[in-house]
Amino acid sequence: MLQTYIHPEELAYNGVELRPHFILSQFKQEGSTLASFTGPCLVLTEHLVDWEDRLVNDHIKAKTMVHFLGEFFGATLKEGLWMQRLLVSLAQGWIQRHGVNVTRSGDDLYFVAKKLSVSVVTISPVSVLLHFGVNVDPEGAPVNAGGLLELGIDPKELVKDLLTEFQQEYKSISKASVKVRAVI
């Protein structure tokens, strides 16, 4: 079973939140959970988990992002990457249904030539960890970026619907994995 949670208060994301049991310690949610909160983002090089970005001394910054933070117990890193791509694809579909043509390249969303999101998955000794951030106001971003405000999209609607869609897909996949007959 997957829980979802929306944190009602603004919270900054700086990369150290991508750790085991952060969702339990901060939001009191036990077990596999996809949580969301809104707030500024500043991830310095030393807190990046993507080696490609660390090696070039990159960083992530935006005035405001909608953050999706997931922790999944009993999953492999590859399963976490599939969940990440599913979440990003669901976000792409949701935004497109709201009249904006966005494209997906791997785990990133773009509109026109502007980067709309950041995302990473990693593994801990006890779980798979996921962060997916969607710019609301990309001010300060180190790349050409756009945000939901520019697109006329209400971040609260995106959060509510995306958490529901992801939870439904997760439940459907879990059900599909136990309803089939084994073949020999």
Give the SSE string: EHEHEHEEEEEHH
Beta-strand fraction estimate: 25-35%
What's the architecture in CATH terms? 2-Layer Sandwich
Q: Name the assembly state.
A: single chain
Calculate the mean pLDDT score and round it: 95
Number of helices: 5
Level-1 CATH class name: Alpha Beta
Structural category is: alpha+beta
CATH superfamily: Bira Bifunctional Protein, Domain 2
Q: What is the domain tally?
A: 1
The low-confidence runs, each spanning 5 or more residues with pLDDT under 50, are none
What does this structure look like?
The structure is a single chain. The protein has 184 residues and is α+β, with helices and mostly antiparallel strands. The protein has one domain (3-178): BirA Bifunctional Protein, domain 2 (2-Layer Sandwich). It has five helices and eight strands. It has helices at residues 22-27, 51-55, 77-97, 148-151, 155-178; strands at residues 3-6, 33-43, 60-72, 103-105, 108-111, 114-115, 117-123, 128-137. The strands form two sheets. The chain has a five-stranded mixed beta sheet with strand order 1-2-3-8-7. A three-stranded antiparallel beta sheet has the order 4-5-6, covered by helices on one side. The model has no long low-confidence stretch (mean pLDDT 95).
